[in-house]
């Protein structure tokens, strides 16, 4: 029997902390991390287990109560002090790969990635790097020789491996996302360490719905390679009225710029919360 089911949104680490006794209730009824009893936090198949035989009845009862408080906090959105949990604290910068869905050099999607690299400079702890997919060959297993891939593909793999997450700028073509973007994902999914457990966000462009249909199909394709997309905010940009950029590459519409920055902040925060779930840790089993 499992005492708790942890979600990837940071709950995997905090619920484990409760079971290990490192997360405690303070005098004001808030949850906090005991400084002398912090433990490695990790994703263990999204299930948190502990040795029931090692827990006394009163202790188990109190920790069950704290788990209930944690779950209620996540459900209500009024979670305890955001920086009280060890998993939310990180001095390591969040590194994001910016991938544009079009190979046209004048594409709006390329401009949006360039704009993101500039906006990220005003967001402490966030780095966005443009990653080119223009030279990737069409996905073809005939081009794979054992563990060897074409050099542009190998270079693409290496750049992705060094990143924590991905920002997709997805134009909508015929109610879907683009062939170059699908091609890049197909190549990257050949090696599990390129996409697995990457966080991601999407900014889409299109006419009537701002590329909304491309976003939802892109999210579906990310399921198999284990890409974890943020849910909110969503950003759909209508490009029917011409260029959305100033001559210096910044966005003309300040409202869109604000929403885009909010998207980047959300991706950064989600990536930080997800980090404890990616750290390997040996699982302990609970007696039935």
Automatic annotation (TrEMBL):
It catalyses: a quinone + NADH + H(+) = a quinol + NAD(+); a quinone + NADPH + H(+) = a quinol + NADP(+). GO terms for cellular component: cytosol; extrinsic component of membrane; photosystem II oxygen evolving complex. One of its GO terms (biological process) is photosynthesis. Its EC number is 1.6.5.2. Residues 94-238 form the NADPH-dependent FMN reductase-like domain. InterPro entries: Flavoprotein-like_sf, FMN_Rdtase-like_dom, NAD(P)H-dep_reductase. One of its GO terms (molecular function) is NAD(P)H dehydrogenase (quinone) activity. It is an enzyme of class 1 (oxidoreductase). This is NAD(P)H dehydrogenase (quinone). It comes from Sesamum alatum. The lineage of its organism: Eukaryota, Viridiplantae, Streptophyta, Embryophyta, Tracheophyta.
